[in-house]
Design goal:
By secondary structure, this protein is of the alpha+beta class. It is 27% helix and 36% strand. Strands 8, 9, 10, 11, 12, 13, 14, 15 and 16 form a 9-stranded antiparallel sheet that branches. Strands 1-2-3-6-5-4 form a 6-stranded antiparallel beta barrel. β11 and β12 form a beta hairpin.
């Protein structure tokens, strides 16, 4: 501890002398420490502002997807099932079509036999299905009852517009095979589980395996969901990972997707855990790696910083869930 204190004092003295020489005036120790603290505070505020701007951008993207799905439910008169947690419901479900979607609410019409005021303010789980010419798609979200208004033929339940809609299948999440034109690149790195996640991409070096359309195919993306993905890696390239790839290994992935509304890339940083390693039944020289997401970030243009967010309560990457849903809708329209 004494040696460390001496080293720090020596370093401060060197900085102090250098600044004094550059400025032509004597810089006191207190002024030096104040300047260092001011620079650190500015850097923190800039990083905080960037993070807030990212969060706002993610929220706007999610809102567009929510409105698109709910308006499709109105057009198709999709039946919504409402499951309350209130004791007086005794496990019963309310069901009826979604009749209206507003800026901050949606309305579901149910039978007249239900109470009008009992569930105002209650939390409710809502599930519904959208019918496409391909396979049907199922969705689920959590909301809260704003009001219950009786009408001549039904009780209209006004619900808060959800922030996020969760796709449903036999799996936890909808999985899509991205169209080749929407996958712009991918890279995988090994991560040391004993170390924190990298905060800057400049020190990562070259990826262990990479995919670039028409240039490099050391790996391929088999499918993608909000909670994970499956990647095929030829066994010949597995040795390029610094450490042996095994179950529970930590992997860093850079996934470049095409943004739904433009030609611009959407670069996701994904911190993953290896959940499965199996040989491809059709080609035993290829290993299929199952990855589960545990943290994520979106890369900013011109910046090497990585600002990490944890996955959601169900292990989802919310902006990636929005991308998957939009991609699924686009594929359904193409099939139709």
């Amino acid at each position: 501890m004494r040696i460390l204190a001496v080293d720090n004092t020596h370093l401060l003295n060197q900085v102090q002398d250098r600044l004094s020489a550059l400025l032509g005036v004597t810089v006191g120790l207190e002024a030096l420490l104040f300047g260092i603290a001011l620079i650190a505070a500015c850097a923190f505020l800039i990083a905080l502002r960037r993070k807030r701007l990212l969060e706002r951008d993610f929220a706007l993207r999610q809102r567009r997807v929510v409105l698109e799905l709910l308006n499709a439910a109105v057009d198709q008169r999709s039946v919504m099932e409402l499951e309350f947690h209130a004791e007086d419901m005794h496990g019963r479900l309310l069901s009826g079509p979604c009749s209206q979607v507003g800026e901050n609410f949606l309305t579901v019409d149910v039978g007249l036999e239900y109470s009008v005021h009992s569930w105002t303010g209650e939390t409710v789980e809502v599930s519904f299905k959208l019918a496409y010419k391909g396979s049907p798609a199922f969705y689920r979200f959590t909301s809260r009852v704003i009001t219950m208004q009786p009408g001549p033929r039904a009780v209209s339940i006004k619900l808060e517009l959800p922030l996020f809609i969760q796709p449903m299948q036999k799996r936890n999440y909808v999985r899509v095979i991205p169209l080749p034109s929407h996958l712009l690149g991918m890279g995988l790195w090994s991560l040391d589980p004993a170390k924190p996640l990298p905060l800057d991409s400049t020190g990562l070096g070259r990826a262990a395996v990479s995919y670039r359309p028409g240039k490099l195919t050391q790996c391929s993306l088999l499918n993608l969901s909000a909670g994970g993905m499956r990647v095929a890696v030829p066994q010949a390239f597995l040795q390029q990972f610094p450490s042996e790839l095994k179950l529970q290994s930590h992997i860093l992935c850079l996934l470049l997707l095409r943004a739904p509304d433009s030609e611009q890339p959407l670069p996701f940083w994904l911190a993953c855990t290896v959940l499965s390693l199996v040989e491809d039944q059709s080609d035993t020289s290829v290993i299929i790696v199952g990855l589960k997401f545990r943290a994520w970030a979106l890369s900013e243009t011109g910046s090497s910083g990585i600002f990490w967010f944890p996955t959601g309560k169900a292990g989802e990457v919310s902006p990636l869930a929005s991308w998957v849903l939009r991609h699924q809708l686009e594929q359904s329209k193409l099939r139709g």
